[in-house]
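Ligand-bound model needed. 2-acetamido-2-deoxy-beta-D-glucopyranose.
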Amino acid sequence: MKLCNRGADGHRIFILLFLISIPLFFIPTANTQLLDSCSTAADCGSGLYCGNCPSLGKTQPFCTRGQATIPTSIVSGLPFNKYTWLMTHNAFSIVDAPLLTGSQRITFYNQEDSVTNQLTNGVRGLMLDMYDFQNDIWLCHSFRGQCYNFTSFEPAINTLKEVEAFMTKNPSEIVTIIIEDYVHSPKGLTRVFSDAGLDKYWYPVEKMPKKGQNWPTVNDMVQNNHRLLVFTSDSSKESGEGIAYQWRYMVENESGDPGVVPGSCSNRKESKPLNSRSSSLFLMNYFPTIPVQNEACKEHSSPLADMAGTCYKSAGNVIPNFVAVNFYMRSDGGGVFDVVDRMNGQSLCGCSTVTSCQVSPMSFS
Ligand SMILES: *[C@@H]1O[C@H](CO)[C@@H](O)[C@H](O)[C@H]1NC(C)=O
Ligand SMILES: CC(=O)N[C@H]1CO[C@H](CO)[C@@H](O)[C@@H]1O
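Prediction:
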């Protein structure tokens, strides 16, 4: 039997909050709803921000979703691989990031807010490109396996410390990091993660399911403090440093432009076929090769929902565990947040969206 809450959309809750707020604040215009017009985020209700989408002909700013639902706060106790998480592609490649080497940067940007803000908004997966640079490990959006001043962002430890601070403050949250790994300095990655204080949350590679079995439940992972999953694209790091080689644990369909062709969802060449059952995690890439801020809201509207259906079929009816996007907050309303909620609803309780699932008695917040 399906246990879905009937009519449990934000609507009723909003009206309730609205009615409560009137006597308290006497501001009848407060708590503007999704899609209402706005001039700043303060005009919009909680979890919303003030966005726009000129590429869909919407010239006036309006309230759009800006925060993910944390699925474990509604349904807990299931294996980690039953959940879908929002992931930011090149989480570090942030518009307006300071120029630490003094050189102008010549590269593409993929996000607009800090990693701390991304995590606070419910992003639980970060894609980071790591390089040897200036006798340290840096995050760079570069090419040919080498970082230059003009493609550099910041020392990796800065971002990893943001992750550490978030995980320490939020002891029941699980975070996944996927490294595009160009680091050759011996034990360089091991050192930077441990210097950031992240080794205490490390999920041991020897405990990762290797034959497509279920992962432990999210509750077990939290109880054991195995809350940080790190994957590298460099296969030698698994035996060398105990860092999981991504392609042993995960299938991934094609990224970049081939990943956004409607009706097609092919695996990228490093990945096993999407319908392979020998990996229990599935990452769905959904971003064009060249990121364009003003186009992202269009990409995150109906084409994303359609693609989610296509990839679900290609993967043999498996729902993605990670949906990786650029400019994650951009949408024409619900965006990637709604898509992830629908995926979680389907896989966690068989309901149309996760907010319709009945709260499980064992839920932790
Ligand atoms: C890169 O930046 C550093 C300062 O951080 C500077 O010392 C170095 O000369 C720069 N390299 C080039 C090639 O501009
Ligand atoms: C190798 C593999 O699994 N490829 C599949 C990727 O998805 C498309 C459908 O979108 C299938 O046709 C391929 O077989």
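Residues 264-267, 273-275, 310, 314 surround 2-acetamido-2-deoxy-beta-D-glucopyranose (ligand 2) (CB under 6 Å).
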